[in-house]
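Q: Can I borrow your eye for a moment on a structure tokenisation matter? Would you mind producing a protein record, from residues through to fold? Write it directly below this note and I will take it from there.
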Amino acid sequence: MYLVTDPAILAGSPLLYVLLTVIGLAVSTYSTMVGIGGGVILLPILLLLFPDTPPEVLTSISLIVILLNAFSGTIAYTRQGRIDFRSGALFALATIPGIVIGVWLLRSLEIKTFSIIFGVLLLAVSVLIISRPQIKSPDSIGSHAAENKGRANPNYLARRTLGTALNFIAGIIAGLLGIGGGIIHVPMMVYVLRFPVRIATATSHFILIFTTITGIITHLVLNMWSGDWHVIAFLALGIIPGAQLGAFLSRRLQSTIIIRLLALALIVLGIRMIF
């Protein structure tokens, strides 16, 4: 049963204000723990709450929420010393042009087939993650120590050249799907680039700041922006403290649990892409 059919009803629904704040808190806590922006989880919820709202409005709301979540989570992870800023900056620079291309392609490309193929791929990756949640890389020098301390140990080997190339491709995919890209960055950083899980999730949050701003600017330039600031404001009341809580909890969870929580988000996005 749909809760709301018109965002204008927000003006007289205190219960919905509370619901949006709780949703923001829950989505932000979970997404910060696993290093994603939260749009993958938030968009289906917004579709349920506002089924008659144009998609560009919901996408705009999601982008602002991802940005707020990324800012708050990055502050928390910076205090914990878990962000690899050098790798994050390089990956963000590579992802930004990819997002612009992806959003531009979205206007003229039939993405139904792409969505199905990508959805199946995400489900396959989620199965891999659940069955093999931890990979020990022989060439990630010092990564075990970095993982145990939860800090960005400068001794582990970061495959930045390969990561830069892959992040350009990840940016195109993120632009096409209207997501921040964290759900692509984290598995790639952990399973391909062999980053320690806690550093990968924190660095992904840092990257999301730049990629989301790029997505917002691109949507504005292409006249694809139409947000609802009432919804954004009440979601933000939960998003900002939720990111702090997620970063706090992630220090106390084993890496295998964090990566399996990420697999759940992959499953949600994969099913959404297919259907």
